[in-house]
Design a protein that fits this description.
Strand order of the largest sheet: 1-2-3-7-4-6-5
Distance between the termini: 73 Å
Helix content: 40-55%
Order of helices and strands: HEEEEHHEEHHHHHEHEEHHEEHHHHHE
Mean pLDDT: 96
CATH topology of the largest domain: Cytochrome Bc1 Complex, Chain A, domain 1
Structural class: alpha+beta
Number of helices: 16
CATH class of the largest domain: Alpha Beta
Largest sheet: 7 strands, mixed
Length: about 450
Amino acid sequence: MRPSLSAGQRRRLEALQAPVDGRAHLVDFAFEAFGAENLLRARLSNGLTVLVLEDSSAPIVAVHNWFKVGSRSEKPGKTGICHLFEHLMFGETKNLKPGAFDRKLEDAGAETNAATWCDWTFYHETVPADRVRLALTLEAERMANLVLREPQVASEKEVVANERRMRVEDDLDGWASEKLWELAFTKHAYRIPTIGSMEDILAFTPEDCEAFYTTYYAPNGCTIILVGAIDPAKAVALVLETHGSREPSTLPAEDLLPEPPQMEPRRLEVKKPTATERFQMAFHGPALGDADHATLSLLMEVLAGGRASRLHQDLVRIRELVTDIGATCGAFRDPSLIEFSATARPGVSAKAVEAAIDEGLARVCDELVSDAELDRAVARLELGVAQSLETVNGKAELIGFHETVLGDPDAPFRRLRQWQRTSVADLRRVARRFFRMEGKTVVVLLPEQVSP
């Protein structure tokens, strides 16, 4: 590893630890590993965490703001408010007219976007290295001074309602996925759709939004990540300059019910306007921090990772039962779902597809996969990590995600080492742990009968 800090950088950081009346100061700082690189972690007195990775490969900087709030934090009757804020945060503030946030960044040659999911919400910009102050100033402005009056809230509610119509109510796969999670979870908040229910979206008031905003959009609920051509000491100083006046909020203690074990299969079959039968299936899987999550991700690559995978070869190419098949293993803070989805070919029933997938899962529970299959899966996952590390934005997202979900930015590299140590016997063991037929949940969409 290269030296962590020069003597001058250390002196500049130590100077930031002096308390200043009415403003936050640097509490502590240290370097920690991010693969073979050094990542600076700094903690401010208002609770804000700052992570900085210097990367001078291009004169740009990725600026990410990750908030530890997602749909898991929502309550019945208030679902979808995290996603609504993803839209509201690009709107008017006390010091910025509507649209000014985006225009200022576009004029600076920056790119910006945001995302919300069950465990997190994040906002990001990629800016020229000499415009980092602008990005941080704009982020501080919308983090503290968002305008949440009736016209602003009503406008974005309609945008989100239309998004729900497009992605869920008018989209067969989106609708089936929402029902699958709702059926598989009976207690845990992961059963709440991130986009929210239509009834809740339309019912939000400015008062609801203001209460949510002042609680969760506070420095002690946020991590700022800066990756790119920036001096780490200068980066921390800029964050203090732009965010040092903010006070922390009182974050509510999380109150989530653990999901009880599923002891029998659950099934939903619904007629929809589809030309062929569609199939979605899930098993309860591990949390991202579970020791078996990395091993399971390898097994999922063997089963459904690309055209050479087992299920694609068997169901798409050889038996021609489906036109497509996909599978994912949820990467969540708490145990989530292992999902399979497929669209049956004309004349093929979803039951036939289900039986074929069940056969494939039984096979990996009974027999060892080949060394060649394991090597291919490891190579595909290694490539995915390598591609994420090609850009400053990719690095910032890796850091922000693993910091927010696990509190450990170096986790991707430990997963790499675990994949390289995994044996074919390990794959069979995790298959037996998670592919339990009594814990299966299935949603099937059947073609509607057309009246003559």
